[in-house]
Design a protein that fits this description.
5 helices, two-stranded antiparallel sheet, Umud Fragment, subunit A, 8-stranded antiparallel sheet, single chain, flat, 14 strands, alpha+beta, Arc Repressor Mutant, subunit A, 2 domains
């Protein structure tokens, strides 16, 4: 397929998202794309993605997410190793002779023993910034009971939200970690419309993996 079929702006758009994928191993968010091209509306992002889909540069993947067409697979670099190599031992007491050996790798299974129960969602918005969770971060969630004061992902009235959850006699209170946002109150008569998707156990961003802080320490 000839790249000339793209307009100059479409080519710039396509190059940006593929370069971003190479650098970060994930696709950019709508907000990141809008900031890059100074779009006033996310509709501009959607229109460009639809144009690339129509011209065959992108395809629909699982869950209707876009992905690069296999014909252009060489534009996306190979993924790095699956784990962090453990290269030996280091003393944490008295000085000892350096011991270098292959002790395997630290993998996701090492970091998260219950990885089969985990899933991730990408954050859109800044309502949890005071909990260290920012727009574009990936929150790690577990299908587990959410205790009072825990952060959880909630599905309510057809919309999802990441908030600190409190149960009370007056209903469910969803508390943001940003003073610019208001609490969301879910009254008991609509409890059946609320579903807690998962308990927040940490998040991942460019600075690394961050574990959840227990509610008693976060307050």
């Amino acid at each position: 397929m000839d790249h000339a079929q793209l307009t100059r702006k479409q080519k710039e758009f396509f190059d940006y998202i593929t370069d971003y994928k190479n650098e970060h191993d994930v696709w950019p968010t709508y907000r990141e794309i809008s900031d890059e091209f100074n779009y006033k509306s996310p509709n501009s992002v959607t229109q460009n993605i639809q144009a690339l889909l129509k011209k065959g540069y992108l395809v629909k993947g699982e869950d209707d997410e876009y992905d690069i067409h296999p014909e252009f697979g060489e534009l996306i670099g190979e993924k790095k190793g699956s784990g962090i190599p453990v290269r030996g031992l280091i003393a944490a007491g008295y000085l000892q002779e350096a011991v270098e050996s292959d002790l395997g790798e630290i993998t996701l299974e090492t970091l998260f023993p219950n990885i089969d129960s985990l899933f991730a969602l990408r954050v859109s918005g800044m309502s949890m910034k005071n909990a260290g969770i920012y727009d574009g971060d990936f929150v790690l969630l577990m299908d587990s009971d959410v205790k009072d004061g825990d952060i959880g992902a909630v599905l309510y009235n057809g919309e999802t939200s990441l908030k600190r959850i409190y149960h009370g006699k007056d209903g469910l209170r969803l508390e943001p970690a940003n003073e610019e946002y208001n609490d969301i109150i879910v009254t008991p008569d609509v409890f059946e419309e609320v579903r807690i998707i998962g308990k927040y156990i940490g998040h991942v961003n460019k600075t690394g993996i961050h574990r959840a802080v227990p509610a008693r320490l976060a307050s």
